[in-house]
């Protein structure tokens, strides 16, 4: 799930300087699930903008904004509420904002900051577990990602700073490599620790990445 956090409402207002008629759009996928861009947050933003002197031409929460064709269709279905707007405030991750920017002539403004790909530990608590590196090594690390969960992203650890299973960079965090050892030990695979992992080939993951299965 893409974890987003709200920008300050005043910052959103400042982006909208010179724009009077605003459409507010939320995303019924990740942003709705974590409570940053669902119906409730869209209604709050709409109320705030109206109270700040803007005309809100309409609101919608679509599912999901990053689905380019689906989002274009959903925006067309909004009719005049969208066409009359000077600008759209988008309460989704940056991928969704860019979909709207491509789909419409009007300017699209982000109301959220996209932070990371996260696991939902419980409502309101999210942990980063995968950095989308493009070459997954979880098969040899006991299902614990060293790229993301080691503060130094070490593919061969632990570093010399690990102390009693904790990370030297943040002693409140478990050392990822201590976790890797524990997981491998549970499944009788500690010999995997003896192998040296090769550096990743970052040329395979040059941005922007495109995948076409057609
Ligand atoms: S190694 Fe880590 S960052 Fe790379 S794909 Fe696997 S879980 Fe994600
Ligand atoms: S202590 Fe462990 S998690 Fe922290 S930087 Fe060193 S190897 Fe990585």
Describe this structure in words.
The structure is a single chain. Strands 3-2-4-5 form a four-stranded parallel beta sheet, sandwiched between helices. It starts with a strand and ends in a 28-residue tail after the last helix. The chain is α/β, with parallel strands linked by helices and 214 residues long. The mean pLDDT is 96. Strand 4, helix 6 (94-103) and strand 5 (107-110) form a beta-alpha-beta unit. It folds into two domains: 2-116, Rossmann fold; 132-199, no CATH class. The radius of gyration is 22 Å and the shape is elongated. The chain has helices at residues 9-15, 30-33, 39-51, 68-77, 80-83, 94-103, 146-149, 176-186, and strands at 2-6, 21-27, 55-62, 87-91, 107-110, 112-122, 125-128. The chain binds iron/sulfur cluster (2 copies).
Can you describe this structure in just a few lines?
By secondary structure, this protein is an alpha/beta fold. It has 8 helices and 7 strands. Helix 4 crosses helix 6.
Sum up the structure in keywords.
single chain, 214 residues, alpha/beta, Rossmann fold, 2 domains, four-stranded parallel β-sheet, three-stranded antiparallel β-sheet, 7 strands, 21% strand, elongated, binds iron/sulfur cluster
